Amino acid sequence: MSVILNIDTATDIAHISLSKAGILLDSLTNKDQKDHGSFLQPAIQQLLKNNFISIQELDAIALSAGPGSYTGLRVGMASAKGLCFALQKPLITISSLEIIAYAAILEAPLQKDSTKVLFCPMIDARRMEVFTALFSPELEPVLEPTALVIDQDSFGKYLLENKIFFVGNGAAKWELICKNKNALFPSNESNPLAMNKLSFKKYENKDFTDLAYSEPSYLKEFFEGTKPS
C-alpha cells in the first residue's frame, strides 16, 4: 500500500502532504514564499509525526517540478532528491501547471458540453508574464507549457469556441485586462488533493524520474514568450 510524500514549493503557497493508496491523509501549508526553505524540512518531520509514519515507510517522494519560483523549485528539488537518495525510494515529478489545472478540474461545476471547456493554469512570472498552458477536462494538453506575456488578445482563437477556466496566482492580472465573456475566473487556490491523485497515478504506472537527470522545469530557459491567437 503506497505511502507518498508530496512536496510543492513551486509557487507562493507551499504544500507538503501525505497520501496512502491515493487517499490524502494530511497536509501542511506555508503562505509566505520567502520562508519555503525554512518551512520544508520541519514540516515533513511534523507531518510524519502527526500521522505516526516513519520516514522509512515512505514508498515514494513526489515533487511539483515547475515551472514556478526559481528558489522554490531549487529548494523542493534538493529536498526531494536528497530524501530519495538517502531512502532509496523513487522520485515522481509532476508539472506545476498540471497540478493547478487538475485542481480546477476537480472543483469545476459540471458542464453540459465539456468538449467546449478548457482549463488554463497561470503562474505569475512577474510584470505581465505568466507560465501557462491549456488542458482539456481530461487533462490532455491543448497548448503546451510556455512563458507568455499576456495582452488583451491572448488566447483569442481558443476563447472563440471554448469557455476557459483561468486559474492560478497569475490569473488575477489577466482578469484585469480580459474582456471576453468566455473567460471564467473561479475562486481557486492550489490544494494538495490534486497533486496526491496525480502522484498516485504515476506511482501505480511506475512513472518515475531518474534521480541523476532530474532538474526543475524553469521553462523560461527553454521557451521564449509567445502569444497564442
Explain the overall architecture.
With 229 residues, the protein is an alpha/beta fold. It has two domains: 3-95 and 190-213, Nucleotidyltransferase, domain 5 (2-Layer Sandwich); 97-184, Nucleotidyltransferase, domain 5 (2-Layer Sandwich). The chain contains six helices and ten strands. The protein has helices at 36-50, 70-87, 96-107, 156-161, 171-177, 192-204; strands at residues 3-8, 14-20, 23-30, 60-64, 91-94, 117-124, 129-135, 141-149, 163-167, 183-184. Helix 1 (36-50) packs across helix 2 (70-87) and helix 3 (96-107) packs across helix 6. The chain is globular and about 50 Å long. The termini are far apart.
Number of strands: 10
**Number of structurally distinct domains:** 2
CATH topology of the largest domain: the name is Nucleotidyltransferase, domain 5
Rg value: 17 Å
Structural class: alpha/beta
Q: What do we call the CATH homologous superfamily of the largest domain?
A: ATPase, nucleotide binding domain
Q: Helices, strands, pairings?
A:
Elements: E1 3-8, E2 14-20, E3 23-30, H1 36-50, E4 60-64, H2 70-87, E5 91-94, H3 96-107, E6 117-124, E7 129-135, E8 141-149, H4 156-161, E9 163-167, H5 171-177, E10 183-184, H6 192-204
Parallel strand pairs: 1-4, 4-5, 6-9, 9-10
Antiparallel strand pairs: 1-2, 2-3, 6-7, 7-8
